[in-house]
Structure formats: structure tokens, C-alpha cells
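Researcher: Next sequence.
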Amino acid sequence: MADDLLDHAAELLAAQRLTAEELRCLARRLSESLRDVKRVAESRGARLRG
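Model: Next structure:
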């Protein structure tokens, strides 16, 4: 899913014709993905320490 989102983001940003709504939606999706990545990394880090 992250790869697809990054590809989609790259395409939208390359087009340089984003509406404000599209940019907000993209920012929300990227934030959600980053939050998921952070949660997984913290979980794995906790398991390695424990």
C-alpha cells in the first residue's frame, strides 16, 4: 500500500495541477501511512529491546 501511495503522490505532484482539496487528501493519506509506519517501527523496536 505504501508503494502505491508514494507512486500516486509522485504522479499528482509531478502534474503540478493539484487542487487544494486534492492536496489536503494527499496530505491526509501520507500522514496516515507515516503514522502506521511509525507504529510498526516502535512495536518492532520494543520487541527487540525486550
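Model: The chain has a mean pLDDT of 90. The longest helix spans residues 20-49.
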